[in-house]
Amino acid sequence: MINNNISFGKKIPLTTCQVQDKTTGNFVPATLYEYDCKDEQDILEMVFSGNQWYFSNSIIKNMDKKFKLNELFKENPLLKRTKFRKEPYSKNDYEKRFFVMQLEDGKTVGICQAQNRDSSLKLDYLESQNCNHRFIGSTMLASLGKITLQEGNNALVIDNSTTEAEDFYTDKCGFIHYLDDTFKLDKRHIKKFIKQTQKETQSPIVDLKA
Questions:
Q1: Three-class SS state of 101
Q2: Longest alpha-carbon distance in the chain
Q3: pLDDT tens column, 150-176
Q4: Residue 79: what are its φ and ψ, rounded to 5°?
Q5: Is the pTM of this model over 0.85?
Q6: Could you write out the three-class secondary structure of 150-195?
Q7: Nearest to 133 by CA among 164, 103, 106
Q8: How far is CA 164 from the centre of its chain?
């Protein structure tokens, strides 16, 4: 049996927020974390987060690539520039970012792969588990929006959205549908969405790195 409450303690806390327990109606704390993939236990935590995720295999594979690059550059820091020049795809692997949202008990309720591109935080994969709680998807997006603003980017972009999620992005979160399967939230609308989410969840989204 997979235990999705395992916590190895290596991830970096970015924001705190609240989601709603559907059974009790109470709001409970949640935290958005980032894995920097400098330790193999980051990958293990994602592996043990459960097998119910549609995108987990792709994310785990990409986390492993970044971990191996971190190990390589740790052994030879001067190699980074040469490797990226000779193997441009390695730079793309190295710049991928990985986020999870977890409850206080360590249960993972949201996962995400992203990268900084063109003054935006672009989300490659975003997935939430809303079986027992409400507002997981919106608090995760609002938290990522908070990080987007804190890091000086101008937009939050979702690439390759699933058809089922399109109404959520546009109607619920205010994203603009500007390409076939791409959605964008600019700086002004990120701020509006954060305020809306804070009101719905009766809690501020606190940037722990500010």
A1: strand
A2: 56
A3: 999 999 999 877 777 889 999 999 999
A4: -75, -20
A5: yes
A6: HCCCCEEEECCCCHHHHHHHHHHCCCEEEECCEEEEEHHHHHHHHH
A7: 103
A8: 19
